[in-house]
Amino acid sequence: MPQQEMDIVGHLDELRKRLIIIITVFFISFVTAFVFVQDIYNWLTKDLDMALAVLGPLDIILIYFSIAAVAALTVTVPFIIMQIWLFVKPGLTAEEQKASVTYIPASLFLFIGGLAFGYFVVLPIVLNFLLTLGAGTFETMFTADRYFQFVLRMTVPFSILFEMPLVVMFLTSIGAITPAGMHRNRKYAYFVIVIVSVLVSPPDFLSDVLVIIPLIFLYEVSISLSKFVYKKRLRRLSMEEGTG
């Protein structure tokens, strides 16, 4: 077998191993979350002043599966990041390995921080606004399915989008992007942020604004972090050239 084909087979085998680990962790986390899904459900709905309705018996199991899946995904995220890093590690230089390994714990904190921001900040504001908007006009009754769809749309996107500064720092550290390029393309980035915010948030103006503002703030923070990492990279490259 040619060397190139052997390399491809080796990479595919390594990828399969990493995927099996991720799927196993997710499955174990899912089963564990499903065992305690009633407690999770009660915690998620403790601040509601009404009972959630279901339109059919299958809705109950689908809702429980959705809650368990999100809980399992939250637990699995650090394992996913670790397995991705282990998969790409052989192709990285020593400096890139050193830079990337420090981002693994930070990515977990940002993921959890995004979930917390969406759940504890954005969700209550949007929910209270919508309830106030319909007060005295409509009789409010939520189905469990619609409510949890709303909760997911207000939380999960933030957990992913909060990774932006970390991704920018890593790409800057390996020379893929520069802070000057981020400055130059700021207007395009803002346009993409607006589009993404409208797509992931519920269809009302307040929700859009509450998603757009944090993302623009994250982009500006990312530029500042990119400058910091870029300066360190230039110093490192200058020292390497001086000793070369």
From TrEMBL:
GO biological process, one term: protein transport by the Tat complex
Membrane topology: Multi-pass membrane protein
The entry's keywords: Cell membrane, Membrane, Protein transport, Translocation, Transmembrane, Transmembrane helix, Transport
Major localization listed first in the record, in broad terms: membrane
InterPro entries from the UniProt entry: TatC (IPR002033)
Subcellular location: Cell membrane; Membrane
Gene Ontology CC: one annotated term: TAT protein transport complex
Regions crossing the membrane: 20-41, 61-88, 108-130, 150-176, 188-205, 211-230
Keyword Membrane in record: yes
Domain of life the protein comes from: Bacteria
Chain's role: Part of the twin-arginine translocation (Tat) system that transports large folded proteins containing a characteristic twin-arginine motif in their signal peptide across membranes.
Subunit structure: Forms a complex with TatA.
Name of this chain's protein: Sec-independent protein translocase protein TatC
Native organism: Alkalicoccus luteus
Gene: tatC
